[in-house]
Amino acid sequence: MFGRKKRKQQDEDLSPHEMGPPVELSARGAEDEKNTQHLLRARQNMGIVTVKEVIADMTAHHADRVMLDLSPQSQSVAIRYDIDGAWHSQEPKELQTAVGMLGVMKLISNLDVKDNRSRQNGQFGAEYQNVKYDCKLNTQGTENGGVRLVLELWNSKNEINRPGPMGMREEMLERYKELVGADSGLFIVSAPPNHGGFTTTWISALGGTDRYMRDFVAVYDKQKIEPEVENIDNVTYDLAEGETPEQVLTKLMLKQPEVLAFPEVKSADLLNELLDLIVEDNICVFAGVRSKDAAEALLRLMQLKPDAQKFAQHISFVLNTRLVRRLCGACKQGFQPPQQLLQKLGIPAGRVSVLHREWRPEDAETKKGQDVEKCEKCAGLGYKGRIAICELLVINDEIREALVKQPQLDVIRKLARKSGHATLQQEGILLLTQGVTSVNELQRALK
Ligand SMILES: [Zn+2]
Hints:
Blueprint: H1 2-10, E1 24-26, H2 32-43, H3 47-60, E2 65-70, E3 76-83, E4 86-94, H4 95-108, E5 120-128, E6 131-141, E7 147-154, H5 156-160, H6 170-180, E8 185-191, H7 198-207, E9 216-221, E10 232-237, H8 245-252, E11 259-262, H9 268-280, E12 284-290, H10 294-302, H11 308-314, E13 315-327, E14 333-335, H12 339-345, E15 355-357, E16 383-394, H13 397-405, H14 409-418, H15 424-433, H16 439-446
Parallel strand pairs: 8-12, 8-13, 9-10, 9-11, 11-12
Antiparallel strand pairs: 1-5, 2-3, 2-7, 3-4, 5-6, 6-7, 13-16, 14-15
Helix pairs in contact: 2-4, 3-4, 11-13, 13-14
The structure holds zinc ion (ZN).
């Protein structure tokens, strides 16, 4: 509290929104007029200073997400940053400061500020150092009567300007572009559930298409909008209000889009309608699935019990990804892999002489009593940034037949292998041999 008072005295003439780092916030989630009112109210609240401080600090740490657990029993609030997919604890905040911040974030996301029990999802905008962020907010009551807040910063430009799905090797990218250039067909994009990188995969999969040449429409649940991709129209439905994606689809088809993108296909009705459109209107459809690998993604859609024949006939490929952390180029450590390790990884003897691992404090040459000198590039984490391991399963006639007659995981996997398909594991090992990631990280990601 002392810190707060001191700041107030110093900045007596400033209103809260003029204090703190120069982060420009914008309100979203309501009508324009209401958004403006929300922002004006937030600007008078001291909580806005903390919101700005947290966003500036997250960008300085390259954190994608922050998680705060506010508990009424404790005066301090634990904070964790998600940096490249791993959680790191930060300096705790005072409860009152965190409560103020939560209130402001909810207000500018058009969420119910008083409701700390139900799960609420919203979004607001931020601009800092000439970079625009979509800030996705998720709050939910916890068992001990507190609230958990997760804020995700999304800088869409970063991902969308890639030439295709991130991490795709050249040869696969060529194949991908060829496949998505087809006149019609069902394309599946998949990644693990719960922040397993679906958004990144989805956005970069759409970004890698000929979206400037054809009319693309992406259809989202109002509560789960993905960042915009240039030249792709976003259309929403309000599931919470009882509106279904099928209802939007009927209206949408009047505009005669050439490519439809549904990040969540969860019913046989929707899937069947999309398959009908592929046949009758000769369109392409991107469908999102949350799954651990390509074969599983196919089966997840089959479990919805769509028209199996049609599904098998029109599905073109499954793109599945898994995010792994990149070793920091400045401090990664090369080592000679023991024969046993190579064998375990399935790398033939003589193929690689050096693998790399992450830096560890014991690698530093420090004299007794001195602090370990950490790498400046990665702050001693050993990793910096992420890359996706991509698996592209192209559906052949044998797999089509199995989908109808024997839709089982082991059968599909076996046929995929037979067709020369490289699994996530195999693609990941390729990244290992290139020194992009480490054995530890690969094991963590593919566990
Ligand atoms: Zn480093």
